[in-house]
Amino acid sequence: MNGANHHRRDTCRLCGGKHLSLVVKLAPTPPANAFVPAAERAREQERFPLDVFFCDDCAHVQLLDVVDPRVLFEHYVYVSGTSPVFVKHFEDYAGFVMERFKPVSGGLVLDIGSNDGTLLSFFQKAGMTVLGVDPAQEIAAAACARGIETLCGFFGADMGAEIAANRGKAQVITANNVFAHIDNLAGVVDGVRALLAPAGVFVFEVSYLVDVVRDTLFDTIYHEHLDYHSVGPLVRFFAAKGMQLVEAIRVGSHGGSLRGIAQLKGGPHAVGASVAAAVAEEERLGLDKAETLRAFSRDIDALGAELGGLLRDLKGQGKRIAGFGAPAKATTLMYHFGIGPDLVDFIIDDSPLKQGLFTPGMHVPVLSSSAIAEQKPDYLVILAWNFAAAIIAKNAAFRESGGKFIIPIPKVEVV
Question: Tens of pLDDT along 246-295?
Fold first, then answer.
């Protein structure tokens, strides 16, 4: 199972346990963001297993197949600043942290996986000193150019200690949609512990297993996302690392996310009721049992049969179908449900970084929104389903001319 760009671990990423059960087996895919230029369309892209495991010791849900992070992240094409929804989310997020924890003015805020610096820009405006860490070379350079100092690399124990020695302790450390992307989570938390001020907080957002299972958000499973977090296993993990989870707050991004807040053990912040409430809800939903995840796998297959049947039926009637949005999760959905260029002619995406490229493995062309008027598809499958309302509102002209939208998740809907 091990190759130059991939290895399979044999222990739980949170507790180190060895009792791991396979609960969901998705179709192997190339890396979800490995878009290719026209010149490389003929070249077959390497695919990696997408198998989901349940830890029988601590109930953590995870991928054991680890693709080399340099393959995934050094030339990354996702930037948060292109999405108005996320810009607003990060503005509110920074406001929440400043208001709730009142960090010392001018103190250090560090963002792990800082991307284009969108979140840090709001902390900077609030009077904090900011520093980003991100492995994507081009994106880190661009963030620096716009005044958000960014170290290009992977955050871990050594980097945390080094930043603390050179710049002092951090009031706030954030990690958004990256705390699920890291194989060595223990090393990252060691780095956080070394860098955090005594009254500081570590705030992270991750896709939440409760929402993933309840709403069949299986396409959020791809190689960048090694972990599918729930609160129970995280409480135990932080405690074992000399830290304490003090809040577990539900937020709406990515179809349902968890905002966790941790402090150093014995820190000044009281543990909120949200932590015990989340653990109780997870137990009520059976997320501490492997069988619940196996039932989730069966739900995925039912959804795929319905969507695939609809698209093949429309194609049989001679309808033209295009996709809207080329997020990472579209790779999982298209592979697992067998939706390729035979069903979808092209995909619209608003990111100039993706336009003119072809989707990972399936090699469906990604075009700008002008292609809707030029090529006149009958149906648009909203692959970026978490932005469905905004996409439908923005494309009123398509709808008025008789075009229809298909929303594939959480349930198949034709609008």
Answer: 999 999 876 789 999 999 999 999 999 999 999 999 999 999 999 999 99
Contacts of 381 (CB under 8 A, 6+ apart): 311, 321, 322, 323, 324, 339, 344, 405, 406, 408
Size of the chain, expressed as the number of residues it contains? 415
Query: Which amino acid, residue 34?
Result: A
Strands 48-55 and 61-63: antiparallel
Whole-structure pTM value: 0.91
DSSP 256: S
The CATH number given to 80-285 is: 3.40.50.150
CA atoms within 13 A on the CB side of 39: 0
**351: region left, alpha or beta (phi > 0 left; psi from -120 to 50 alpha):** beta
Residues 193-212 as b or e (16 or more Cβ within 10 Å = b): bbbbbebbbbbbbbbbbbbb
Structure tokens at 111: 């963002």
Angle between helices 185-195 and 231-240 (to 10 degrees): 60
Same CATH topology for 80-285 and 291-414?
Answer: yes
Closest CA to 133 of 84, 79, 173: 173
Spell out the residues 6+ positions from residue 395 whose beta carbon is closer than 8 angstroms to its own.
324, 369, 372, 380, 403, 405
* Fold of the domain spanning 291-414: Rossmann fold (3.40.50)
Helix pair angle (118-125, 84-101), 10° resolution = 40
The full set of domain ranges for the chain reads 80-285, 291-414
Our CA dihedral for 25, 31, 37, 43, rounded to 10 degrees, sits at -60
